[in-house]
UniProtKB/TrEMBL annotation:
It comes from Streptomyces werraensis. It comes from the Bacteria. Keywords: DNA-binding, Phosphoprotein, Transcription, Transcription regulation. InterPro entries: CheY-like_superfamily (IPR011006), NreC/VraR/RcsB-like_REC (IPR058245), Sig_transdc_resp-reg_C-effctor (IPR016032), Sig_transdc_resp-reg_receiver (IPR001789), Tscrpt_reg_LuxR_C (IPR000792), WalR-like (IPR039420). PROSITE patterns: HTH_LUXR_2 (PS50043), RESPONSE_REGULATORY (PS50110). This is Response regulator transcription factor. Residues 3-119 form the Response regulatory domain.
Length: 220
């Protein structure tokens, strides 16, 4: 079973997340926290695999709690709940060692998928939020920056470039597979290979690099 800690200062939000997660037969919500400080203490003292943290919480905000959990309970994988209005925090969350982020209005199945991905040691980045972050953060690249991005992308094959272009658009593996007539598993393999070749830690970094290089999806 994947043991989950849910931290949010609103009881109704916690109850809703609990209901969604416990509908999966491999996930158990073993603890809840009402603020960031309580989340840190619970992660330290309770056997937890994944912690789901809201950003806006009293005592300690989600990002500060994430950093503290990394210090006192490094075994715990942390997912951050965010909204479009908090997109500037996404890269900070990843920088603090977060296992990823997803939007508060995500579909229930996406929440379950994110927890499973985090528990398996993978990063989960909400496709919709990734696209929004990329659009926000990818300002027109300076010439030198664009040239460096294109130099790094030269290591990719044509097929890898096609997959990367769709990452830049914020598509999920399943949607990219449908666009390229590939299975989701095959796309996942390509994504792993792309991240390795580009020396990127996650999909957001790769997507930003694609934008810097001016990479566009075929026909887009």
């Amino acid at each position: 079973m994947i043991r989950v800690l849910v931290a949010d200062d609103e009881p109704l939000i916690r109850a809703g997340i609990r209901m969604i997660l416990t509908s999966a037969d491999d996930i158990d919500v073993v603890a809840e926290a009402r603020d960031g400080r309580e989340a840190v203490e619970t992660a330290r003292s309770t056997a937890v695999d994944v912690a789901l943290l809201d950003i806006q919480m009293p005592e300690l905000d989600g990002l500060t709690a994430l950093a503290e959990i990394g210090r006192v309970a490094p075994r715990v994988r942390v997912l951050i709940l965010t909204t479009f209005g908090e997109r500037e925090n996404v890269l900070r969350a990843l920088g603090h060692g977060g296992a990823g982020f997803l939007l508060k209005d995500s579909a229930p199945q996406e929440l379950i998928h994110a927890v499973r991905a985090a528990a398996a040691g993978n990063a989960y980045l909400s496709p919709a939020a990734t696209r929004h972050v990329v659009d926000t953060l990818a300002s027109p690249a300076a010439t030198a920056r664009g040239e460096e991005a294109r130099r790094r992308l030269s290591a990719l094959t044509e097929r890898e470039l096609q997959v990367l272009a769709l990452l830049g658009e914020g598509l999920s593996n399943a949607d990219a597979g449908a666009r390229l007539h590939m299975s989701e598993a095959t796309v996942k393999t390509y994504v792993s290979r792309i991240l390795t070749k580009l020396d990127c830690d996650n999909r957001v970094q790769a997507a930003l690099l694609a934008r810097d290089a001016g990479l566009e999806p075929a026909g887009g």
